[in-house]
Amino acid sequence: MASLKELKGRINSVKSTQKITKAKQMVAAAKLRKAQAAAEAARPYAARLAEVMASLASKITVSENSPKLLAGTGSDQVHLLVVANSDKGLAGAFNSNIVKAALAAARELEAKGKTVLFYLVGKKGRAVIRRTYPKSVLQMFDTTDVREPGYNEAERIADELVTLYENGKFDVAHLFFSKFRNALTQEPTQQQIIPVPAPKAASADTGAVVEYEPDEEEILAALLPRYLRTQLFGALLENNASEQGASMTAMDNATRNAGELINALTIQYNRSRQAAITTELIEIIAGAEAL
């Protein structure tokens, strides 16, 4: 049985940990409000750009002469999995869920005879993927010095991916990130980003006659890189909001668990202290009787 000194030390240690988890919970809650607002604000822009893309795509016939980002390479043998993680831990299963989804997709593609490569964003999750696929990591994007990944990072990632694509390093790219639902729910999501999936036809036809200058295909070719950057930007924002939500929930659970442990240790301490007092009294009484 632990001594009173040891129990008191454990109680103080857990109280110190509880203060840290409580502080991190409050920080994550503050960051979550901003991150959630940013993610929600970006969604309408992405949706509207998709509608414009759909309108333009409906007016052309996709062929081998179409922009490569839309038409593809003519093959789907080599698949690049773009795995977007964070650089920090203490966010529950946020990073591990994204990695699990990517590894599951990799195994499924390999079962179909496809070649799988990885493009890793963020530090978390790298170790698992590099250990599982040591020769398949094509490139890594470092976000260590970035407080909150934003459009600049999305643009750089998109440019690197397009360069790799044009150099024939892969045929299809899939993006893995966590879509923010609420503070308690973050949904690991897989999305094909290269070649850009042909957008669904515009839902509403206003009947207006629109003349494009230059033509639709040229405008679409100029919009495709912007569309790719927008998808990556939205994913980074969703990831940031998901990370803060997961972190807030994890720290709240840790704070509660610490409180329960403190209560249990305090009860044990009081019982041990009472037992020690009782033993001491018995020894005093026994000594008095001996006299």
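the 2nd protein, sequnce then structure:
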Amino acid sequence: MSLDFENIYAVILAAGASRRLGSPKQLLEWRGRTLLGNTIENARSLLNERVIVILGSQAQTIQEKIDLSGVVAVVNPDWQTGIASSIRAGIDSLPVNADGVLMLLSDQPLVGYRAMQNLLAQWRIEPSCIAVSQYHDTVGVPALFPSAFFGALRSLRGDRGAKSLLLQFEDKLQKIPLPEAELDIDTREDFDHLSGHYDAGE
């Protein structure tokens, strides 16, 4: 397998309905950008045009309000069945020569360019392993999955996300401390905490 990052792609999962928030969290504005726009910009800074965004709920509204011209936007028609369908849509959108996929969420705003870059750099050391974020005594995304795990990602069903797969392949994980990934935005309180404590630049 080539270790050239030119064959690494990012998949940003942004299909959820934000039910607990009450409005599309992808469109919440922070530091002058939407949460989804922030994730896209960081991923594109690292991987250029090799960024795939999976949309679902409110897809048309999101497409109207965020410039997606520099990425591949995929609308998952099955988004209501759970996050696994969006993961499958992302994997199915990868080119056949992809060496790996950097799985990202649109609601982890503190995960910036440097964190993504560190995951790729650490993966290069052990390219047969999954480079995974470690935070708060657990592991999760962002995570970089080598192509050998694409089949396992496709096998996920329902609301089982990538974390269930990470726990299954414990012996194949390369854990990278990333406390920034602990904060995700599910409620208005989460966003208020973000705005109140992290309103300055990185």
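The two ends are 34 Å apart (CA to CA). The chain has a mean pLDDT of 91.
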